[in-house]
Amino acid sequence: MNNIPNSLDSIILSDKICKIEYSKKKENLNYGIFKIQREDHTIGELIQTHLLKEKNVIFSGYKQIHPLEHYIVLKIITNGVISPIEAFDLVLKDLYIEFSLLEEN
Amino acid sequence: EFESTFLFRNIDFSLINSLRRIIISEVPTIAIDLVCIESNTSSLHDEFIVHRLSLLPLFSENIDEIKYSRECECDNYCSFCSSVFELNVTAKEGIKYVFSTDLIEISNRFYNSKNENFPIHSSSLFKSYSDPKIIIAKLNKGQRIKLTCVAKKGIGKMHAKWSPISILKIKTEPNLKIDLEALNSLMGDNLKEKISKTFSEFFKFEKHISKVNFSDLYLNGRIFFFEKTLSSLVEFFLQEKIDPLKIIINKQEEKVFYIHIESTGALSCKLILKSAIQIMKQKLNFIGIHVEKLN
Lengths: 105, 295
What we know:
The complex is a heterodimer.
Chain A: E1 20-24, E2 31-37, H1 41-52, E3 57-63, E4 71-78, H2 84-104
Antiparallel strand pairs in A: 1-2, 2-4, 3-4
Chain B: E1 3-9, H1 13-25, E2 29-40, H2 46-54, E3 82-90, E4 96-99, E5 104-105, H3 107-110, E6 135-139, E7 144-154, E8 165-178, H4 180-186, H5 189-198, E9 203-206, E10 211-214, H6 216-220, H7 227-239, H8 244-247, E11 248-263, H9 269-294
Antiparallel strand pairs in B: 1-11, 2-7, 3-5, 3-7, 4-6, 8-11, 9-10
């Protein structure tokens, strides 16, 4: 009867869904696809633009496939020196440090 | 203090954008969520009054101690995750307004409450707000409203009533620098006196050297060239037939961003920014933990 989707769907992570799923395509290239649940453009754009500034990352892009489905897909291609997971990790740590500096001021 | 501008330097735009999104939709506040109406004989129907009640800003500076209702161990709601208010107004003689200060907290009757929550215009608030009280409804003679309502914690994503801000403006302005030497060489003495009088906060005229210098306030970093002063400066130059481009240099190495926040009163502007940064860090942490698990 009611067409309104549950507003808590966009935020809460239930136990059945894992937060990040990682799939590797084309075993020889450093090509990683991350599917991150319950996140949206807020984090997606931030991580994507900072990945492009890394030296070893060739390609990075994110998209939210449908606005009513609350997950983003993040694609990273690196040149082989570091794996996509490590690149992701590096960027997250850099961002954490930047925000900590902001907080102090 | 509920309306302020923050200045950021040497920051990427994507950081500012994500902060903006978090301020609008993910900073938690308290708002009325459940209403139980006993009697309503006013001219406004039930849902109308409930909607107006839920949009009232409630004082939420101690939001960190309150849990979400869905995460609390109680059944429906308890003292750790909510607070109860009551509204009981009868118009005995003539027309009466129902103000937001008529909302009384009765959590003590239901459970031993530790929190002190009230609408921002409550008389028990120790700070005095200069804004007028908020009108909820208007009653004619003989009409009455009686209801109890429960306020819970939430974020803007769930419903816009939980958003802490009313206006948010983000401006990027290139850092413009004024070339003092060109200023002094291009202008005669009377012009220098004029400019130091009209823009007395920025410039100082020193008669013995007959030169214009920046005032102490500007050198200490207390005053910045905002858009309005720049435009009036340019007008001044144009009137005196001096080419403003020779004096104002565009310095594009450092980008300067202004965030102007007008809050509804639930949280002060500093708190909003602080909690936004904390929430951002929590999110990054959470994702980081899961990425490490993948390895």
